[in-house]
Amino acid sequence: MLSLEDGRLAVCFARLVVESRVRKVDVDESELSSVFSEERGVFVTLSTFPEGDLRGCIGIPMPIMSLREALIESGRSVVRDPRFLPLSEEELEKVVVEVSVLTPPRVLTVDSPKEYLERIVVGRDGLIVEKGGYRGLLLPQVPVEWDWDVKTFLEQTCAKAGLSHDEWKSGDVRILSFSAQIFSEKSPCGVVEERSFE
After folding, report:
1. Residue 152 shares a structural domain with residue 187
2. Running along the chain, 198 residues long, what does each successive block of 10 average in pLDDT?
3. Which of 32, 55, 67, 196 has its Cα between 20 and 30 A from that of 40?
4. CATH code where residue 134 lies
5. Would you say the pTM of this structure is higher than 0.90?
């Protein structure tokens, strides 16, 4: 678990990376605590302010690099999320930065697909659906923001993977869950607050 101060540093560092990428200058790395050396999965999300519309969301879901490195990689990539036009310098003061620090994803083992409906908890779990070369991920806050039930959450994660909505019912799909700590700016460059999804 990250402290609120570590979360504040994570968001400020992610914004620094985003701004440096957009302005094409080097990142001036600030002092980060030892937790930033630990391997963590992370996502950096940009949303318009005050509308709250998604402007980009890119991350490293598996703990394969340090939190610092994952923030740099995600922050550099999110400004060019392929779903949107590249972030412009004029937009920097019109977006809020959110950082989601993930627990290691774990495979959900069930005897029947119906068990997923009992094992997954909206507001706690994020999901990854994998089948063959297809893979989709939705963060824990997504079903809460869209007011989805577990079945809809599963269907939408399958759709994110490019699979049919009902693919979660098949026996050859792999479903993983994770939780996250979410730290976000309340306004551009503003106070950072925490939302936990565990």
Report:
1. no
2. 92 95 81 88 97 96 96 97 96 96 96 96 97 96 95 98 96 94 92 74
3. 55
4. 3.30.1490.150
5. yes
The pairing of beta strand 95-102 with beta strand 180-185: antiparallel
* pLDDT confidence of residue 197: 54
Q: Indicate if 97 and 14 belong to the same structural domain.
A: yes
Let me know: does 151 contact 116? Beta carbons within 8 Å: no
C-alpha of 89 from chain center: 23
Residues 130 and 89 in one domain: no
Q: Which two tokens stand for residue 21?
A: 């990428």
| HEC letters along 94-118 | HEEEEEEEECCCEECCCCCHHHHHH
* CATH number of the domain enclosing 43: 3.30.700.20
